[in-house]
Amino acid sequence: MARLLIAGFGFLGIALKDHFSAAGWAVDSLTRSGADGSQACDLSDAEAVAGLNSEYDLIIHCAATRGGGEDAYRSVYLHGCRNLRSHFPDTPFIFTSSTSVYGQTDHSEVTELSPANPSAETSRVLRKTEDLVLAAGGVVVRLSALCGPGRCHTLKSFLNGTARMDGAGERILNFVHRDDAASACLLIVDHWREARGQIYNVSAASLSQRQCYQSLADHYGRDLPPVAESGQRTKRRGSSSKIVGSGKIRAMGWEPSCPDFLSILH
User: Fold this and answer.
1) Strand-pair category, 205-208 with 172-177
2) Any residues with CB less than 8 A from the CB of 12 and at least 6 apart, and which?
3) Do residues 201 and 244 lie in contact, with contact meaning Cβ atoms separated by under 8 Å?
4) CB of 144 within 8 A of CB of 244?
5) Complete DSSP assignment for the chain
6) In angstroms, how far apart are the furthest CA atoms of the chain?
7) Helix 11-22 and helix 178-190: axis angle, to 10°?
8) Would the pTM count as exceeding 0.70?
9) Which residues in the chain land under pLDDT 70?
10) How many CA atoms lie within 13 A of 122 on its CB side?
């Protein structure tokens, strides 16, 4: 039986375990605390990673910083991937990155061939991590904003009244359901020979901020959020606006089960 190690057993990790287990894989997972039945391991600690003594047929790094800054990104992503690659040099490896590495602001469509030159320091760390993984023959999966059961920042801010429209709301937002992200990873493994060393965008829905909030307003019978005042604009994702194209993974056979924004929320 093939064995998978999920490095970071959180929101996405749960879906990955479900999908790979259903496909017949044995699944182990790591978290820093060892919660939820996972093995405790600090990915940024080379000695801790070197203490892992099992053998695996695949490793998926999907650990999260939980809102941390540049230092946290460097520890969890760059150092974490470096340590795992060092200890498991011959094991197929997937790194779940983010479409935040695309810094485009002109609402254009971006593909895996588009320049990925982010202005945010955290996203620059992601790019360095991607290069590390790709150089070792791994696969990089660039995910749009993950949504699903109980998690969607956009919905949460809309419902609690803290959402704000950036100007006319023309900024493009991109989303994908966590189960669709997990299914993309499983598909990549099934096509590993062609996928090795490649980047794949995984995104299901792209719409303007105004369209996004209008759909929520119509669905919940509420008003649109007010326009943001100076200094209130979104800091984390507000510096870019692009349509994330997923033609490459779709050509491999991936189709999202939740193809529109409202379906992605559930």
Assistant:
1) antiparallel
2) 62, 96, 143, 146, 178, 181, 182
3) yes
4) yes
5) --EEEEES-SHHHHHHHHHHHHTT-EEEEEESS--TTPEE--TT-HHHHHT-----SEEEE----SS--HHHHIIIIIIHHHHHHHHSTTS-EEEEEEGGG----S--EE-TTS----SSHHHHHHHHHHHHHHHTT-EEEEE-EEEBTTB-HHHHHHHTT---B-TTS--EEEEEEHHHHHHHHHHHHHTHHHHTT-EEEE--EEEEHHHHHHHHHHHHT-PPPPBPPTT-S-SSSTT---EE--HHHHHTT---SS-SHHHHT-
6) 56
7) 50
8) yes
9) 230-238
10) 18
**Distance between CA atoms of 131 and 133, rounded to whole angstroms?**
5
pLDDT of residue 233: 52
Output b/e per residue, 189-204; b: 16+ Cβ within 10 A: beeeeebeebbbbbbb
Fold of 3-264: Rossmann fold (3.40.50)
Amino acid at 139: V
- pLDDT of 154: 96
Amino acid at 108: S
- Round to whole Å and give the CA distance between 203 and 88: 29
Structure-token pair, residue 245: 């194209």
> Six-digit token pair at 197?
């060393």
What is the DSSP code string of 51-78? T-----SEEEE----SS--HHHHIIIII
- The residues, any chain, with a CB within 8 Å of residue 168's CB and separated by 6 or more, are 210
| HSE (side-chain half, CA atoms, 13 Å) at 217 | 15
Determine the Cα–Cα distance for residues 239 and 118; give it in Å rounded to an integer.
9
**What's the token pair of residue 233?**
């604009």
